[in-house]
Design goal:
Layout: H1 2-30, H2 59-77
Length: about 80
């Protein structure tokens, strides 16, 4: 039984090594290095494709949240 588990682990190790090698080859071929720095590719990911960057009035939300917390503290403290 230990031999079967060992064979399964070897198959998984070989598969993970092949996947890792393929991903490295794709990354080396698709990444453009500019001035010695590699980009982080966050803006091109599918997860953030439709998101907008925070506008110049994003700080207003932080101020409103802080004021709401302060008002809740003052209501329940007194």
């Amino acid at each position: 039984m230990g031999l079967i588990i060992n064979k399964e682990n070897n198959k998984n190790d070989d598969l993970s090594r092949r996947i890792d090698a393929d991903l490295r080859a794709k990354m080396n071929g698709s990444v453009d290095i500019v001035d010695g720095e590699t980009p982080d590719l966050v803006d091109e990911s599918e997860y953030v494709k439709d998101y907008k960057k925070t506008g110049k009035f994003g700080w207003v939300w932080i101020v409103l949240i802080v004021l709401a917390i302060l008002s809740l503290i003052s209501i329940f403290a007194f």
